[in-house]
């Protein structure tokens, strides 16, 4: 439970005394407990409470989306450790991970490493920024991550790494879906 609200309306002092007792107990369990007294008008309209609830739900959705976005970027480690790269040997083709892959030039391999590690780092940073609620930083990391993801897909497609490009493309689709949450 992240937030607790004690909300009461009273025509007498007894309800307020009871609400204060509930508040004392709630603050022991959760120091982030808020206390509100409402009027009859507030109870009838309830617009204020609905606005607070909607803002809280939007904030929670953004945090969940941010965490998931970061987790998808962290999943770029799959591009390093899964056997996605072809390694021709003795008339057949074996699949190897990036650590064992020798079928391309060292420069291209270095670019793969740089892009994949950039995605992993972006995922970790995205999760941290989500937890500290740094909106501007999150936007910058999201933009960087999407750009690196697109570069990964293009580079893997250009070098004809079929299995790796499918994984990179699926990760990119997952991140794109998280950018446009359903309402």
Features:
mainly alpha; single chain; two-stranded antiparallel ribbon; 183 residues; rod-shaped
In summary, what is this structure?
With 183 residues, the chain is mainly alpha-helical. Helices cover 67% and strands 11% of the residues. The chain has seven helices and four strands; from the N terminus they run E-H-E-H-H-H-E-E-H-H-H.
In words, what does this structure look like?
The chain is mainly alpha-helical and about 180 residues long. Helix 3 runs antiparallel to helix 7, helix 5 runs antiparallel to helix 6 and helix 6 packs antiparallel against helix 7. It is rod-shaped. The model has no long low-confidence stretch (mean pLDDT about 85).
- N-C termini distance: 23 Å
The biggest sheet, with number of strands, parallel, antiparallel or mixed sense and barrel status, is:
2 strands, parallel
Multimer state: single chain
Task: Compute the number of strand runs.
Answer: 4
Order of helices and strands: EHEHHHEEHHH
Instruction: Tell me, rounded to a whole number, the average pLDDT.
Output: 86
Radius of gyration: 25 Å
- Helical content, roughly? 55-70%
Widest β-sheet, arrangement of strands: 1-2
Runs with pLDDT <50, length 5+?
A: none
Beta content: 5-15%
Q: What is the global morphology?
A: rod-shaped
